[in-house]
Amino acid sequence: MTEINYDMIIQQLQSELATDCSIANRYGLVLSSAINEFAKGKIIPQAILDVISRKDELEEELKLTQINSFALEAENYYYLFSFSEELILISKLELSVNLAKFMPSISTFLTRLSKSSKAADVREFSFFDFGKEIRNIEDLLKKDEIKKEKYQIIKELIKYVSL
């Protein structure tokens, strides 16, 4: 299977949506980013992850069927957090952007990306050769037994010399 090139996806999003974006996995690890506050390899702040993880409770409390994203308004930007089961997409938007027009396209994109990431996560499994591992363990035990015998001779020599 081929790995997903998240850096290329971020570049495409920047050119098509004219905004900076970051992609993180469901645990909050940023996989690729064009946003300084959410740099690649960093972790999304725990408070934000808590909100995302409690989305089911919020849906129930607000009597909604689904919550797909939320926005934070900062001094000069909106930070839009869109999430699926596998990924979190963060968009940094100017305050002049109409979120109602922007959110449906980003939600559709995230759904498609999430489906492709699930397909990329499937790995081919090989059969584990227990016989080979057991032979390796037996060989190690034989070597340890030989070492014990060598050390026993040294112990006896020390006892003899010390008497």
Helix percentage: 40-55%
For the record, give the distance between the C-alpha atoms at the N and C termini, rounded to a whole number: 69 Å
Give the integer mean of the pLDDT values. 80
- Can you say what the CATH homologous superfamily of the largest domain is? Dynein light chain 2a, cytoplasmic
Note the main sheet.
5 strands, antiparallel
User: What is the count of distinct domains?
Assistant: 2
DSSP, total strands: 5
Strand order of the largest sheet: 2-1-5-4-3
Residue windows where pLDDT falls under 50 for at least 5 positions: 119-125
CATH topology of the largest domain: Beta-Lactamase
Task: Just name the CATH architecture of the largest domain.
Answer: 2-Layer Sandwich
The total count of helices amounts to 5
> SS-based structural class?
alpha+beta
- Element order: H for helix, E for strand: HEEHHEEEHH
* CATH class assignment of the largest domain: Alpha Beta
Whole-number radius of gyration? 28 Å
Strand content: 15-25%
